[in-house]
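Handout, section B. The chain below has 342 residues.
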Amino acid sequence: MKHINVLNGLEMAAEEINQEGFEVDGKTYKIEIVALDDKYLPNETGVNVQRMISENDPIAVWIPHSGGVFATQVFNEQEDLIIMAQTSEPRMYEQGNELMIGVSPQYNIWPKTFSKYMMENFGNKMALLPTNSQYGKDWINVIKPVWEEMGGEIVYEGEIDFAKETDYFTVMTNALNTNPDVLFVGGPSEPTSLVIKQAKDLGFEGVFMVMDQAKIEEMSGFLEEGYDMLNGSIGAYPIEEYNTEASNIFVEKYKSVYKEKFATADSSLSYQSLYVLVESMKAAGTVDKPKEIMDAVNEGIPNVPVEKMVIPLNEINDVGSLQWEFNAGAVKDGEVISVPLE
């Protein structure tokens, strides 16, 4: 779902921007969105981006997974192409790529807050059952030391291949036999919700720590009892719950246009980041000089219309990561409450 949510957000922003176009150095421009499916395969991402460069001469490309970002970092600076990296992988900043904007908040902002909330409310024994993707493995490398440093115990380590497995009985039974208070789960929202349902069907009475790839609002839509089955869970705070003028306008329009049950942070981040790029072009006075556009991002951010600022955005930092104001979201008595980040 993430890929289509990202594309939907971009198309919605482009449609709004193109109603009047935007002016740079006395000339009016419009946005063209070109979409190619990389099937979540990094080598396909590289091929697709090279094809876009030769056929469309883009100024920026949105890539919603870390493998695709790493594949494109090999050549984007030589090609004068801005990567809009919509993945929360912190390692992508290690390259020092000067033509990359990190759209998503880095996932290492979550573990301390998640762990503290779980230990204070539910217990300190955790079993790990994330997706077996590289993203899942990287998350484990972050959450495991934080959990243990805060006095927690990892009682089981497993993983789930969502591409091959639809029945999680065996791995779930093994995990639950260790009597955990908390299950760490995550991956795409729909299969993650099935993992949660299977745990509950097998009698698990504990709670769930949800990695940021899965969205608790989307999972509530896949679960028969909505948020009730997610009581005690913690994950990223849903934009559905922000209840600001900008978020309410965005959520209602998104659901209406795309006939979706929920609008998620993925769609909002791509939507807002296109506005950021346009305002950066306007501030830089150019639509085709990537380095000058990058240098103008912090000048452009304050000019994003307030009614488009679904998630508050402060700045882009020194390594190129957009600094959003995010909270965690926990489910309590069938409703989502906000948990401020540590």
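Note. The longest strand covers residues 125-130. Compare this with the example in section A.
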